[in-house]
Amino acid sequence: MIARFRPKRRSEDGAAAVELALVLPILLLLVFGIISFGIIFAQQLAVNNGVRQGVRSAVVAGNITQQTCGQVLSSIQSASGPTIGMSTGDVKVQVQRVPSTGPPFNCFTAATKTATGANINKRVCAEGTGVEASIKATSEYETKLLTGLPFMTSPTFTLTATAVYRCEFSS
């Protein structure tokens, strides 16, 4: 007689599957977001290191071989990677000499940012002017999320880095 008054217990057989179906998309989005952020952060570090190392190698006293616009460009591009999903040839570089007096000298046009034209063999640090100068280089790299997002187009990010170093020698 006491057994008749007890409430019946409901079965919870499918509850775990429903909870997993609700939580799994959010969890996967979070995990792949963290992975994508890590990859883009690694690419930004590579661009920063490349522009800093490339310009520094051009201005260090005694390193006369790395002074032309083309050599600085190739030095920056080679020092920029490679890292995950990044091609060093796609790194766009703008190099200019900034004298203490007078206008700056651009190695390449800002639109192309590639090593072409008559300025490729120009020396960026010293041309016998006796004027102190610095080298300023800016790198740009366009990247997308490698993991992608469902039902969305992958956004494009432009990673930029700038380095300015004073020339330590003159000709």
Describe the structure.
It contains 3 helices and 4 strands, in the order αααββββ. With 171 residues, the protein is α+β, with helices and mostly antiparallel strands. A hairpin with a 5-residue loop joins strand 1 and strand 2 (105-106). Helix 2 packs antiparallel against helix 3.
Task: Count every beta strand, where a strand is a DSSP E run of 2 or more residues.
Answer: 4
Main pleated sheet: 4 strands, antiparallel
Content of β-strand: 15-25%
N-to-C SSE string, H for helix and E for strand: HHHEEEE
Radius of gyration: 27 Å
Shape: rod-shaped
- Could you say how many structural domains there are in total? 1
pLDDT < 50 stretches? none
- Backbone structural class: alpha+beta
Helical run tally: 3
Helix residue percentage:
25-40%
Compute the average pLDDT: 78
Strands of the widest sheet, in order across it, are: 2-1-3-4
End-to-end Cα distance, whole Å, is: 109 Å
Oligomerization state of this entry? single chain
Keywords:
171 residues, alpha+beta, 4-stranded antiparallel β-sheet, 35% helix
Please outline the helices and strands.
Blueprint: H1 2-5, H2 15-59, H3 69-79, E1 92-99, E2 105-106, E3 133-144, E4 156-166
Antiparallel strand pairs: 1-2, 1-3, 3-4
Helix pairs in contact: 2-3
Outline of this structure?
This protein is α+β, with helices and mostly antiparallel strands and 171 residues long. The protein has helices spanning 2-5, 15-59, 69-79; strands at 92-99, 105-106, 133-144, 156-166. The mean pLDDT is 78.
